[in-house]
Amino acid sequence: MSSTTAPAFTAVAARRTLTGSEPSVPKPSPTIWSKEVREWVSRGFAAATDDDGITHDELTAKIKQIITEYMSNESMYSVDWSILPIPQYFIQQERQQAILGPAYQPNAMYYPTPPPPLSTFREQATVPASKKRKSSELGVDQEPPWRKSNSLLEDRVTYANPTFEDRAEKRSKKRRDETNKATSKYQNDLELRKQRFGLHSPSPSQPPWRSRSETPAPDASSGPVIGTNEDLEKKYFRLTSAPKPEAVRPQRVLENSLKFLKKKWREGASYPYICDQFKSMRQDLTVQHLKNEFTVSVYELHARIALEKGDLGEYNQCQTQLRALYAQGLQGHPTEFLAYRILYFIHTANKTDLNDVLAELTPAEKDDVSVKHALDVRSAIALGNYHKLFRLFIDPPNMSGYIMDRFIDRERVSALAKMGRGYKRALSLRFLAEELAFESVQQCHDWFIAVGAQDLLESKEDGSVWLAADTPTYKLFESARQTTFSKVDIKGQI
Amino acid sequence: MEPILNNFKAAFSQGNGYAMANCLMPAAPKDDAGLLYGFYRSTNHFSVQSDIRSFLTYDSRGLFVSKQESGLWVDVFVAYWKAIGDILHAEEASNQTKGPGADWNKVYESWKDMLNALLRGYTNSTFPAWSIPCLYVAAKYLRIFAIKADEQTEKTKGAVTFSQGLSDDLVSSVEKNEKLEDATRQINRIYGICSNDRAPMEESRKWGLYYFTNLMFKCHFKLNSINLSKTILKSLTASAGDMPPLHAFPKSHQVAFLYYTGVISFLEENYEKAEENLTKAKQLCHKDARKNQELIMTYLIPCHLLTTHTLPTMALLGPYPRLQQLFLPLAVCIKKGDLAGFDAALAASEREFVKRRIFLSMERGREIALRNLFRKVFLAGGYEPPKEGETGTNRVRRTRIPLNEFTAAMRLSLKLRSEDELSRDEVECMLANLIYKDNLRGYIARDAGMIVLSKKGAFPGTGV
User: Fold this and answer.
1) Lowest mean pLDDT among A210-224, A255-269, A278-292, B20-34
2) Which residue among B170, B351, B443 sits closest to A424, beta carbon to beta carbon?
3) A385, B429: Cβ pair inside 8 Å?
4) Which label site among A337, B216, B290, B411 has the fewest CB atoms less than 10 Å from its CB?
5) Which cellular component terms (GO) are annotated to the entry (chain A) (predicted)?
6) Could you say which residues of chain B have pLDDT below 50?
7) What are the residue ranges spanned by the domains of chain A?
8) Stretch 164-203 of chain B: residues touching chain A, C-beta under 8 Å
9) Count of alpha carbons within 13 angstroms of residue A49, beta-carbon side
10) Does residue A284 contact residue A254 with C-beta atoms inside 8 Å?
């Protein structure tokens, strides 16, 4: 192992580019290091474990080297030692660099920059709280800003367009003026590819199962990443190492991505694509520690789309995050999502969690239209009032209908078991279609066929269809009820 | 340190485990408030080890079986001394308005060290099994300190922790009750050490099993993870064969165990089982343990309402003003068939009910209220005109009742105004529910707009 990692010690490219001076190695002076420096060193030793593949000697050498470097360029006191990553981090960086070759530049983690004030990015959540049943309809009534810049947005995704090159040049020039570390698009792509390569083939000296433990534990004090990526689209990859700024998009870009994705979704893009894009956006937000109203709007939209597509797993992830974000006092649509949460617990028949939600409700929340609807649904089911339940199903607020879809058939079965008991004579399908909130008598008819009740249906001379009531209906639906309620698909993952 | 260690030595030589446990209390007894202070001040960090060692082993010939045993007890008391120091500091700090405040996390950690020192004596069976009450005290207070530590953490850090690592989403798995979860794991460890004891029953640690099971239940309830309790329950029933029967255990263990298993069954909506366990718990419960009786009845009353449709009487609720306040308004409305009153009473005590996890069960009392209302309609309907040969004694009640009468009764009971709507379909729906659950016998004749009730026992269990 040491044979492959040894060369890594000579190349300290990142330092050279930043200082522009050759690190001369002065004789370590008998200076007493400041408290911060000593703490940093002890942090390094404290974090040393047997399984990260770094020997004690390597660690000591690295610490010496770093301190010497800072001494030599007189930045000893300008560096904030308390937030400097532990020495292991630099060793890992170098190893990775050694694997990837000289073109790869470790990111500028040497000087973690504080995040820009969020207020500069803050944008009012654009999604109005109107009653909509389609997530794509949400936000339709505002003037879409991307209409005007339509071509621009398209260009930025497909690199074939030559105008893109110009624009990217301009932008990168601008950025270079700002930060002096912009990279050309080509380099950008190259690095992305290399990064990907690096992710998939761990260093030859390490068996694959070691690669995870070799990842430096991201230090909380190392601060957030500041993204520099300009792409509107980005494929989602699960992170296995600290994120690279050039692969992360700042909020400014993400805001455009969100608009772009909204448009794509409205134009009928496939759900797997949209979901993937949203996941990468969420990742970018996370690694940059962005917790603001824009974050909320990303999660809200993803949750709505997931609901519409019946992807309850993804919806749940968003819901969890949203709860925490709302708890931070961020603006959004907390009551809308509270209503979904209640309905979701009805779906999973999770009495414990349902009780906990009820325990947390405030009077103001109870008065909210969507929460009230969800609570009414709950009580209607608890009291067996299927008549009221199906009235509530016909006119749900927001996207509540999509969760109700999940358990409505179950409730239909349960209602029919009761009807089978309560009525002696046949019931007309017209009545049943209305009572059980089917869209039409035909749909109702099809549903009965689908659940295997065809033998109970009877056509009359006037063309109307009747469902035999009494014992056979009761028996059929009672046994169906017992099987459906005994196995509720809790996760609802697709 | 003399008083505590002398007591300990006396209790040890008498073989009195509970008296030994008293010497490991983290709180001073009422009649000697300065006991722990004196104990803490009698030595210091530098010499605590040697002081305790010399005191414990001095003039104690024959007390300890082996040098190893005395050494382990010395470790226990050194850890205890350190924990007492942290506890006294924390209590002092929480009494002061200024300053950094009490550090309960530190208390938790040092108490856990004490527990681990104690546990070492049991893992290799050095400590006699009859001294297990020491573990009771250690585990009981571990839970208490864990809760305090978590409360403190939540106050200082806030309930939400955001992830910093490589996760895709902002919020990492919420570690709201970190210490309590850890405490539960520790207690589970103790449970394991007790249940693995192969010694003959007379000197087995298995006598502690129910105590630790109850303690874990307590933690799970606080953590809102009652599912974990079911796992414990399973492992306990699996090993029941090698254990003395429940009724051989101390009564306090029995009552707590029956109470918790009763509540678990209650939450699973297995009301028969719940009623069985809770009734037993109530019978065994000490007559002066008012609070425990109240807790048991909080679940027993809803159970009884749902299984047998009977309401608590004044005589039963009399000695418990809190239960009266909780259940009496609802009971009155159910009896009268007053739906509007029921809804109002339910809404009024919703918060209390939800807190005790009985809301979802109490809500179902509305069905009984509705049944009582419809029963009134049936009774008000009077009798069929007597047929020939019928005498006054076996007259038949009117069994064909127009749906309108039920609708009118519901409107009255719900205190609906003339413009409020109550559709015929909804009334039919409620009737179908009653028939389905066999609270009413008969059927709905939809075309005729009639309800045809059974001639005999139209309302089972109510005498008509």
Assistant:
1) A210-224
2) B443
3) yes
4) B290
5) nucleus
6) none
7) 2-100, 118-332, 399-486
8) 164-171, 174
9) 9
10) yes
